[in-house]
Amino acid sequence: MRSGHPWVYSDSIHESNHAGQTGELAVIYDRKDRFLAVGLFDPDSPIRVRILHAGKPQTIDLAWWEARLEQALARRRDWFDAQTTGYRLIHGESDGWPGLVLDRYDTTLVLKLYTAAWLPWLDETLALLKENVPCERIVLRLSRNMERRPLARRDGEIIFSEHAVPEAGAPVIFLESGLRFEADVLRGQKTGFFLDQRENRREVETLARGRRVLNAFSFSGGFSVYAARGGAAAVTDLDISAHALAAAQRNFALNQNFPGVAACHHDTAQGDAFEWLAASAAKFDLVVLDPPSLAKRATEQAGALRAYERLATLGIARLAPDGILVAGSCSAHVPAEEFFEVIRRAAAKSGRKFAELKTLRHPPDHPATFKEGEYLKVIYLKFAT
Q1: 0.85 cut: is pTM over it?
Q2: CATH number of the domain at 7-54, please?
């Protein structure tokens, strides 16, 4: 805690003065009864306390919360212009709001909670957001670990609406780098879109001209639309979900005003990416491999690394001469260097000459200020033959 780590696990607590209720402020002292920190208490989570403040004692009141919110908002004020209206406003622990994220999709905010410790504070949090973050509605989303908890508010509930807004179940349309995308803020993965891959989508756009592109684990086709605008000759979206592929087709339709998108041949393929890559004989000039997390817990790390290497091997086999592989991981339990190493190993085993173009990590609106908060890593390799 003294070095800034935001979590206290249940087995690290020596003693407590009473049992404690969900959402209570837990004040933490060291063995010499010196104040260490204060945080939100969750008696049902292995992460028993999520730290709000460490160091010298402070009063946690409305003014304190307002200042904490302003710090997160101020960091992002100069990062985005009118061409990007979808981004993260609060990134959990790394913005001082442990277990809480807030995403903006144009005039809609999505508040996602990862710990029940926020539930007793929900009304105050919503009031604070309404006062300080202009919006037309706020949608509440809950992580899977909270699905069985009895709640006064329902997951997906529209909390706040003062103006004309889209139909409750309709996707929200927002801008990213001038491109239009839909976000299913009520039922979509994460908060409705993978905002953290923005910089990698921009990078793929610069690499796509004249290339045949395969976007594996495509979700709603974000990489594909960028590639098309960048001049890709053809793009194939591959995903196991028909719902995701339908969203990808709609996102292409939303951007027909761009000549590159209008001219690009767009295909979709439904199926398991591992199986499809193994069975296909098609060749592509740019392959994007962006799977969901393959390690949900630390014990799955070894298996995930093997899966990433196999996936990279399959992707490389689909690459034409001078092809580019873009391989990503969003598994927090897989360290970046170990992930990069298995992708490099798969490339070396292919027997093809290759050059490493770059690696990318977290975008600025998704900072990672502690080890467990580091999850996103992407590597770019170009193969000569």
Answers
A1: yes
A2: 2.30.130.10
Tens digits of residue pLDDT in 56-89? 999 999 999 999 999 999 999 999 999 999 999 9
Query: Does the pLDDT value for residue 174 go beyond 80?
Result: yes
SS3 226: helix
Count Cβ atoms within 10 A of the Cβ of residue 74 and give its class: 0-12 exposed, 13-18 middle, 19 or more buried: exposed
194-383 architecture in CATH?
Answer: 3-Layer(aba) Sandwich (3.40)
Q: Are 190 and 263 spatial neighbours (Cβ–Cβ below 8 Å)? A: no
- The residues spanned by each domain of the chain are 7-54, 62-172, 194-383
Give the separation between CA 39 and CA 45, rounded to whole angstroms.
Answer: 14
CB–CB of 86/220 below 8 Å?
no
C-alpha distances out from residue 153 to 120, 163, 302, 354, Å: 11, 21, 39, 53
From residue 299, alpha-carbon distances to 295, 334, 338, 339 in Å are: 8, 10, 15, 16
How many whole angstroms separate alpha carbon 239 and alpha carbon 289?
11
* Fold designation for 62-172: Transcription Regulator spoIIAA (3.30.750)
